[in-house]
Amino acid sequence: MLVWKFERDDAYSVKSVYKDILNHDVAVVQHHVSGNWICIWSLKLPPKVKNFLCRACRNCLPTRFRLQSKGVQYTDRCAVCDSFGEDSTHLFFMCDKSKICWQQSGLWSLLMVIFKPMCLLSYNTWISSKSKFSV
């Protein structure tokens, strides 16, 4: 008799295989981004907005800096202010023009409470990646 070790009742289920892959697959584990993603996915927003938020938080949007890091021959300077590398953090939180938009919407102080630690982490990651390639 065959026994499935990933379930209490020893019965095979796709769910148990999926959980095991997520917990032990090296490719999946190395790409895991820590964070409380449930707070984004539990928001009452359209799925495309939640997807956008997750991609922005993980710095996965096709910003100029990201495109350049993927080999696209393009400047990484901000298209709006031309004074800083255009990554997600800069584009949405650090660019003077985006700050003005957030301040005029009345959401700036709330965003800084929620996202400031993440922004600083992303900014420090960006700075460290720049220093690795400095000549």
Mind explaining what this structure looks like?
The chain is mainly alpha-helical and 135 residues long. The protein has a domain at 62-132. It is 59% helix and 0% strand. The protein contains eight helices and no strands. It has helices at residues 14-24, 26-30, 38-41, 47-57, 64-69, 88-94, 96-105, 108-132. The chain is elongated and about 70 Å long. Residues 130-135 have low confidence and may be disordered.
SSE sequence, one letter per element: HHHHHHHH
Distance between the termini: 64 Å
- The shape is elongated
The proportion of residues in beta strands is under 5%
**Ranges with pLDDT <50 over ≥5 residues?**
130-135
Q: Whole-number radius of gyration?
A: 20 Å
Rounded average pLDDT? 75
